[in-house]
């Protein structure tokens, strides 16, 4: 009969099977019923034996991760801009790159003090990451979040309730979800991967409709830019996340649509990850 392995031995075996060290540690803590972020506890108890019930949970998590399922789905949560968001296979896993878009929106949202509060729109909200991060940091702003997927909206609404953040949700495709309304800032992390992209198999557990958008990945971005003009207040901003090699194309689309002060912002790796433009007060 094999002796019961220690936590340290079990984690070593997982790394030998190809799991990254941090992923293995977070999944082990989850199997043990502890916070996946309590790595200090894990290191202090790495000589403890892995009890049978936790071992069974660990084995399931290990096999799912080896099959390529995102760690966030296995844990049921993902940290984003200081929030802990519940996530599952109905929504994309929020990425740190999208925090660049949130910060840009915070930078351009009008200051409080006018007759009406600023209005912000998050198109294709998924888990609610962008809208909820902005609601946390700008509680004076009226925030609306939309998605074409009713399943995704259910996830976002549940996150809003759990976090106690006031966001209005609307179901529909891009601007058709909020007909006739105008906003000071429209932000979106739309699908922007080209159909047939070789990286798609690695993303097979995430909803395809939130990933791909036409042969060059720009179909959704083109639609949002074309529709966004009529949904922005004069002096408003349209901010878009896009692929690592799409910044120049997105800037050109914004300029052709009549936006000014068009520019891009880089992510932590120095890649142009978001592009945006200002809708002139007078045309």
Describe this structure in words.
This protein is an alpha/beta fold. Helices cover 37% and strands 19% of the residues. It contains ten helices and nine strands. It has helices at residues 7-16, 21-31, 39-44, 52-66, 71-75, 98-108, 129-137, 150-163, 219-231, 247-256; strands spanning 77-80, 83-86, 119-123, 142-147, 168-171, 183-188, 232-241, 260-266, 272-278. The strands form two sheets. Strands 5-4-3-6-7-9-8 form a seven-stranded mixed β-sheet, with helices on both faces. Helix 1 (7-16) crosses helix 2 and helix 6 (98-108) crosses helix 7. The longest helix is centred in the first third of the chain and has 15 residues, at 52-66. The radius of gyration is 21 Å and the shape is elongated. It starts with 6 loop residues before the first helix and ends in a 5-residue tail after the last strand. The model has no long low-confidence stretch (mean pLDDT 94).
Rg from C-alpha positions?
21 Å
* Helix percent band: 25-40%
Number of helices: 10
The low-confidence parts are: none
Structural class: alpha/beta
Strand content: 15-25%
Intertermini distance: 80 Å
Q: SSE order in H/E notation? A: HHHHHEEHEHEHEEHEHEE
Strand order of the largest sheet: 5-4-3-6-7-9-8
Shape: elongated
Main sheet characteristics: 7 strands, mixed
| Rounded mean pLDDT score | 94
């Amino acid at each position: 009969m094999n002796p019961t392995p220690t936590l340290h031995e079990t984690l070593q075996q997982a790394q030998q099977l190809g799991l990254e060290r941090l992923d293995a540690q977070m999944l082990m803590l989850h199997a043990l019923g502890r916070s996946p972020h309590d790595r200090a506890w894990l290191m202090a108890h790495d000589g403890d034996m892995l009890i049978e019930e936790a071992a069974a949970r660990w084995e399931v998590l290990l096999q799912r991760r080896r099959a390529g399922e995102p760690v966030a789905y296995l844990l049921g949560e993902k940290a984003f801009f200081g929030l802990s968001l519940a996530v599952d296979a109905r929504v994309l896993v929020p990425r740190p790159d999208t925090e660049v878009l949130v910060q840009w929106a915070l930078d351009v949202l009008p200051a409080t003090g006018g007759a009406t509060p600023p209005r912000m729109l998050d198109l294709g909200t998924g888990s609610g990451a962008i809208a909820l991060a902005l609601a946390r940091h700008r509680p004076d702003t009226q925030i609306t979040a939309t998605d074409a997927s009713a399943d995704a909206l259910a996830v976002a609404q549940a996150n809003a309730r759990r976090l106690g953040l006031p966001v209005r949700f609307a179901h529909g495709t891009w601007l058709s979800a909020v007909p006739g309304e105008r906003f000071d800032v429209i932000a979106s992390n739309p699908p922007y991967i080209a159909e047939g992209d070789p990286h798609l198999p690695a993303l097979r557990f995430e909803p395809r409709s939130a990933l791909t958008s036409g042969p060059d990945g720009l179909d959704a971005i083109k639609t949002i830019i074309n529709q966004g003009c009529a949904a922005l207040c004069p002096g408003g901003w349209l901010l878009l996340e896009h692929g690592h090699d799409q910044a120049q194309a997105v800037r050109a689309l914004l300029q052709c649509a009549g936006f000014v002060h068009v520019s891009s912002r880089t992510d932590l790796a120095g890649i142009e990850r978001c592009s945006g433009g200002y809708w002139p007060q007078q045309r």
